[in-house]
Amino acid sequence: NGLIRRFYPKGTDFSQVSHRKMAELEHILNTRGRKSLGYRSPQRGIFNALTGGISPLGFVVFRVGMGRCS
Known about the structure:
Layout: H1 2-5, H2 19-30, H3 42-51, E1 59-61, E2 66-68
Antiparallel strand pairs: 1-2
């Protein structure tokens, strides 16, 4: 809720906010690093949890980025 309020102040009528604007905000928040996740994004955290940290392209996902498997 606090992160959403950075974009839309308290009292905003969300029925007046388009689905596209909400989808853009959802993308911004889901790809933004969080301190509580070791500065990884929630999207990266879910990806690592579901795949064990290995992408379908053969990359190993490290804490600070991605590197190629050798």
